[in-house]
Amino acid sequence: MSRLVMKFGGTSVADLERIRRVGRLVAAEVAAGHQVAVVVSAMAGKTNELVAWTDGAGPAAEGLPPSDDEYDVVVASGEQVTAGLLAMTLRNMDLPARSWMGWQIPIIADDAHGKARIDDIPPEKLGAALDAGEIAVIAGFQGVTRDNRIATLGRGGSDTSAVAIAAALGAACDIYTDVDGVYTTDPRIEQKARKLAKVSYEEMLEMASLGAKVLQTRSVELAMAYHVPVRVLSSFVEPGEAPGQGTIVCDEEEIVEKRIVSGVAYSRDEAKISLFGLPDHPGVSSTIFGALADANVNVDMIVQSKARAADVANMEFTVGKRDAQRAVEIVRSVQGQVGFEGVAVNDDVAKVSVIGVGMRSHTGVAKLMFEALASKGVNIQVISTSEIKISVLIDAAYTELAVRALHAAYGLDQL
């Protein structure tokens, strides 16, 4: 009997009626002969409410340790409520089910509270329960540290929980969301967006990291590392209502016909930091980005150019919008050591990216991107590339125009 992990996000369990629909979807998989574990998020909006409560409680007094561990206790409670309600619903349907918290499995995590990473999931207890015919309903987003404290996995962490549990159990993983698969771009921006039947782990990883919000980045990393078959599909259908729906995330070798470009992603959560008058000699970049790394500020796109004066350069890099002011403060803290002339920040920017494994074997992808943007009067501020993606930083006002232009330029509306 094959094992299946089903994961349901916040909108899928937003109220009791939706939880009952989830129950029907779970029952259909049990009837099909699967051993089923279900991972649930908190009800839509609940985590935001819990976070607001922790903000209202305020920081710890001077001299006491930060309350990050207690923050996790509060925000992890949303998933506990959902897990209990779904287990009750399944029992009402005459199906054997019980809820599992992260510490009961256990999902062992490190102690980076609020953004913990999973270290290990011993499968024995959960596997025995599934073998006994029980449906395991698991609170996503949470684990337990080695000193028995609750630790949460960061926003979107229920996706990571589900894939990690699937890897531990040797199971496939179905991620149920409010969309019916992975699209070539955001359908809210481009009505001609097409659903992809299959997408490679690498493409999905780039899409997730570049702004597509279908799957959390770390969940895709885990799926790729452990070769977990993942399917993204909609929870807003009844069992059997939409056969063959969804997008399969799989190894590149399983996709017969490689598309040059599979999708266009965008992110408005960007800020550009500009440094002027940098001394152009070894060690400068190391000092600046070392200080940012020590403060856990993630840097994305970086470009350096010669200034008009000899032995002087200018530099631009991007960080998340929430980190912008802190990044400026950190950079200014090393200004005396580095000796640059000035710093400026612009958070009215967006990153637009094209992604596709076919880029490895095709030329002219960048040329077409730049021509498409130029034809719409979109100016490019910063460019970064990898083997399967090209990202550009543009004025935020042109985000939707750029997405639509690139979607059409690569023929994604014809898939």
Can you describe this structure in just a few lines?
Helix content is 33%, strand content 26%.
Please characterize this protein's 3D structure.
The protein is an alpha/beta fold and 415 residues long. It has 13 helices and 18 strands. It has an 8-stranded mixed beta sheet, sandwiched between helices. Helix 6 packs parallel to helix 8, helix 7 packs antiparallel against helix 8 (217-226) and helix 12 (365-375) crosses helix 13. The protein starts with a strand and ends in a 6-residue tail after the last helix.
Give the secondary structure arrangement, pairings included:
Layout (H helix, E strand, L loop, with lengths): L2 E6 L7 H16 L3 E6 L5 H12 L10 H8 L1 H16 L4 E4 L7 E2 L8 E3 L3 H8 L3 E5 L2 E3 L5 E3 L4 H13 L2 E6 L20 E3 H9 L7 H10 L3 E5 L12 E4 L12 E17 L4 H11 L4 E8 L5 E8 L4 H10 L1 H4 L3 E14 L9 H11 L6 E5 L2 E7 L3 H11 L6
Parallel strand pairs: 1-2, 1-9, 2-6, 3-6, 9-11, 10-12
Antiparallel strand pairs: 4-5, 7-8, 11-12, 13-15, 13-16, 14-15, 16-18, 17-18
Helix pairs in contact: 1-4, 6-8, 7-8, 12-13
Unreliable segments of 5+ consecutive residues: none
Mean pLDDT figure: 92
Main sheet overview? 8 strands, mixed
Helical region count? 13
Q: What is the beta-strand fraction?
A: 25-35%
Principal-axes shape call: globular
Order the strands across the largest sheet as they lie in space.
Answer: 3-6-2-1-9-11-12-10
Query: Could you say which structural class the secondary elements and strand pairing correspond to?
Result: alpha/beta
Helix content: 25-40%
**Rg calculated over all Cα atoms:** 23 Å
| N/C terminus separation | 36 Å
Total strand segments? 18
